[in-house]
Amino acid sequence: MRGLLSSLYYGLPAARATMFLVPPLYWFRREAARSILREVVSLKPKTVLEVGFSDAFLTKRLSLALPSSKITAIDTSSGSVRRGKRLGLPNVRFLEEDFFKHRGEYDVVVSMHVFVLFNHRAGLRKLKELGDVCVITLTAPSPFTVLHRPFHRFMTGMDVNLIEPEEYVRIAREEGLSVKVVKINDIERSYMVVLGRKR
Question: Suppose 155 and one of 9, 35, 36, 143 were both cysteines; which one would form an S-S bond, judging by CB atoms 3.0 to 4.6 Å apart?
Fold first, then answer.
């Protein structure tokens, strides 16, 4: 049963099923995507890596906003990769890959609410290898995220690592990265983190 629900949660009907089940998730995703796009467009990157594109919600927007950029989008789901390729986005290459095994170097690495699934310190170390600038979104504990956490665990079998912005900043600085935090939504307590390699 969980496998069936999980496939709905992550497939193209996935996002739609999630939006139907929990409508605020769509609004939160839209806000997060807008925040990321504003930041990334201002950087004018030639190369972009998106980590965990899932249903390509952010990928489609990146492709339109950055028509001259070469975008690589990675996800561990073969179904997501197949669906992504069918979109025909001319400047996007979809790959089935594990983030921690990916090799390459990019002007910007982006990810929307995926790094809540990773150990934060391990994620930061890998980000530092891949990008000059990394723009990711995270969530802190709130009544909404605490309620959503068991739902997500049931649907996917994965836990969510909620973290306060101050704690994330501390870890990122310990890993030698510059950090800027931008608040996204008070209900979800989501925030965007812009990370840079220190020169």
Answer: 9
% of the chain beyond a pLDDT of 70: 79
Domain at 2-197, CATH class: alpha beta
Which segments of the chain are extended strands (E)? 47-51, 70-75, 92-96, 106-111, 131-139, 177-185, 190-197
This prediction has a pTM of: 0.84
The residue ranges of every structural domain in the chain are 2-197
- 97 φ/ψ angles, rounded to the nearest 5 degrees: -150, 150
Nearest of 191, 176, 178 to residue 141 by alpha carbon = 191
CA separation, residue 15 to residues 7, 61, 69, 88, 121 (Å): 10, 16, 26, 19, 28
The predicted pLDDT at position 7 comes to: 44
Residue linked to tokens 């929990």:
22
Q: How many Cα atoms occupy the beta-carbon half-sphere of 132 within 13 Å?
A: 11
